Amino acid sequence: MAQRLGGSIGRDVADDTFVVDGALSNSWTMDGDDLLITLPGDTHEIGIDTEIDPSANSKLMGLYASNGMLCTQCEAEGFRRITFFPDRPDVLSTYTVRMEGPADKFPVLLCNGNEVAAGEGDNGTHWAEWHDPWPKPSYLFALVAGNLVARRDTFTTMSGRKVDLAVWVREGDLSRTEHAMESLKNAMKWDEETFGREYDLEVFNIVAVSDFNMGAMENKSLNIFNTKYVLADVETATDGDYDAIEGVIGHEYFHNWSGDRVTCRDWFQLSLKEGFTVLRDQLFSADMGSEPVKRIEDVRVLRSVQFPEDSGPLAHPIRPDSYREISNFYTATVYNKGAEVLRMMRTMAGEERFRQGTDLYFTSHDGEAATCEDFVKSIEQGAGLDLTQFRLWYSQAGTPKVHLTLDHEGDTATLRFAQTVPPTPGQPDKKPMPIPLKLALFDRKTGKHHGEQLVILNEAQQSFSFDGFAEPPVLSVNRGFSAPVAIEREVSSEDLVFLAEHDDDPFARYEAMQDIVVRHLCATLAGSLDDAQRNSGRQAIGAAFSAVLGDAKLDDLMRGELLILPGESYLAEQMLIADPAAIRAEREGLKAWLGQTLESQFVDLHERARAVPGGTSAEAKGARKVKSQALVYLAAGNPGLAARTASAQYDAADNMTDRQGALMVLTSLQTPGRTHKLLDFYNRFKGNALVIDKWFALQASSLHPNVLEHVKALAKHPDFTLKNPNRVRSLYMPFTGTAQGFHAASGEGYRMIADLILALDPLNPQTAARFVPPLGRWRRIEPGRAVLMRKELERIAAAPKLSRDTYEQVTRSLD
Ligand SMILES: [Zn+2]
Fold first, then answer.
1. How does pLDDT run across 640-651, given as a tens digit for each residue?
2. Which residues are known to be catalytic?
C-alpha cells in the first residue's frame, strides 16, 4: 500500500533518517515534493528526521523565526513545510510534542493541549513535552518558543472547570494586553450563553507575533495572533482597533468549536468554519457594543470588498469548485458572504430554531471533518427548514439583483419582484435563489408602519399584495440587510428622505441616507442631471444631513455612521464602467459642498463632542467618532479652518482615536502644519511598529495630490521592509484605494503595485498575491486606464518563476 505524504521542505529524506517500526528502511521514493511510502499491511510506526531553517523561512508558513522567537502558521498547508505528513484537514491525529533548546534564548516553550512534563537538559538547555488529547488536523498544529511574558487570568466554565488563560507577548508589551484578555473572557462566556459551547482544556494561550501573514490563527488551545489584534492602550490604539481586537479574539476563540472540534473535510469546505465563525464573531461584537452600528460596519465591508470581488474576474461561490492555491480563497466571499448566507438561514428560522440547528450540528459532527452539506442538513433538521433550493447560495457566485416596483390601487399595495443572478466566470446561467427580505410599509401621514414582514423570494418573478393602504405607502425593504443582494427600484427622493427621517430600523435609515447620495452621484456622473436637478439633489442631501446633525435622539455612534458617504469602490460597483478620477472628484465635490453648507453645524458638533469626557463608554466613543467626521467635512469645505481645528485636536489628544483622526485630515491637506505633525507623530511613536504602520497608512491613503510621490519616498524609508507583512500592507494596501495615486492616469500607480508584486513574490507569495485583485478590476475601469492595468498584469504573468499563488490570481484576472 502506498501512502503519499505532502512536503515542500525543499529536499529529500536523507538515507539514514527513515525508520519503519524501529528499523532503518528504504521503502520510500520522492514524487516531486511528495514522499511516497510503499509498505505492506495497514499499520506501521514511521520515523522521519527533518532538518529545517526557520530563519530562512520568509514565506511565514510552517515553522519560522520572528523577532527572536520561533512560531508556526500551518493553515492551510504549512505543516508540510515542517515535516512530511498527510497534510489534509480530514486526517485527524492526537499529537505529543517534545521541544528542546537553549533556555536563555527560548525560556518559554508552548504547544497545543496541556504541558505534561518539563525539565533541564545539558549545556543550558531545557525541554517541555505537551500533549493535546483532542484529535486534530495538522493545520491546527502550533508551537511557540521564545522569550515571552504573560498576562494571566482564569475562567470558570459553565460546568465549573477552571481554565488558566495567558496572553503572551514580548516584555515591553505586557501593559497593552488588558483588552485582549477581557475580550477573551467575554468571548468564552458569550459562547456558553449564546451557542451552549464550553471550553474543553485546562489552558488557553494566545501569543502575539509581529511577522504574520494573517490576522490570527485558531490553533487548538494555542492561538497565534498578529500583534495588531492583541496590543492596545488608549495612547496607541484607536476605538476601531479596540473593536477589531475584540472581534478577532472572539473569532479565533469561537473556532474552538466551529473549526477545531468540528473541522472541514477538505478546503472546498472552508466557509463551513469561516462563514459560520464570522457570523458568530459578528453576533458577539453586536452584543458587546451597538448592534445596529456593527451591522452597518459589516455591510460596508461586504459592499466595498465582497461585492466587487463577486462581480470581477476572481468571483467564486462561497464553496469554491476549484483552486490551484487554497491561500487565494481566504476571501471576503468565503468569509463575509459565507456569514451572510448563514445569517439568512437564521433570519428564516428565527434565533431559537437556528440554535437548535447549530446544537444538532455540533453534537452530530463533534470530532469529525464535516462538509457544508452536513451543516445545511443539521439546520434543516434542527430548525425545521426546507433548504433544498437554498443550497444554491453555496454553489452560485455573483451578487443577486432584485428589481422591485410598488403599485397602489384602491387600498391595496402590490410589490412585484424580479431577481437575477449575474453571470460570473464559469457560471453563465444561474437559477433563482431563496432571498429573505424584511420589509415594512409606512403610512406617509403617521410616519408609522403596519408591522415588519418577512417575504421570501424563490422565483424569478413574484408579487405580494398588502391591504389597508388608502394612500400609496412608503416601502422600507431589505431591513437589517436581511439578504446580501443589490436592490434596484424606482423611488422618489421624497420617499428616501422620509425613510431617512422616520424609519425605525436603524439599518434601513442608514440605507436611505446612502441611497439618496448614491442615486445623486451616479446620476451626476452619468451626466443625466441638468444644473437645476443637480442643485435640488444636493439640497435634498443637505437637508438629510442637517436632520442627522440636529437629531437629539440619535446617539453619536449611529450619527457617525449616518454621516459617512458611500465609498468610492461601492459607487464604482453601481456602474458598468467606472472612471475612478471622476468618482473621486464628484464625491469630494459633494463633501466640500456639505462642508460649506453645513459648516456651522459641523463646527457645533465638533465643539459639543469635544466637551464629552473621555473613556471607553459608548458616549465617549461616539463623541470621538463624530469629531473625526466633522473634521472630514470641514477639511473638504474650509481647509484653513479644518487645519486649525485638526491641529488643536492633535495637540490636545490623550488618545489615538483623536490623534489619528486629526492627523488623517492634516495629511490630506496641503498645509504647512502637515509635515510638522507627521514628524511629531513619527518621533512620538518611533519604535512602536503598530503605530508606525498607521503613520505609513495615513500617508498612503491620503487625499493629497502627491500621494504617489509620498508612497515612493516612504518605500525608501529606513523603517520600511518587504519582510514584514503588516508594514507592506500598511503602505501599499491603502494606496490601492487612491484615485489620484493608484489610478493616476499615467499608469505609474499600477506600475508601482506590479513592481511590488514582483519584488514580494519570491519572499512571501501569499502576501504578494493579495495585491493582484486591485489590478484585476481592469474590465470595470474606463478604457484608458484599463489598458494600463492589463499591461501590468501581463508583465507580471510573463515573469519567470512566479509562485503558484500569484500566478493563479494573475491568470484568472487576465482570462
Ligand atoms: Zn477564521
1. 999 999 999 999
2. 252
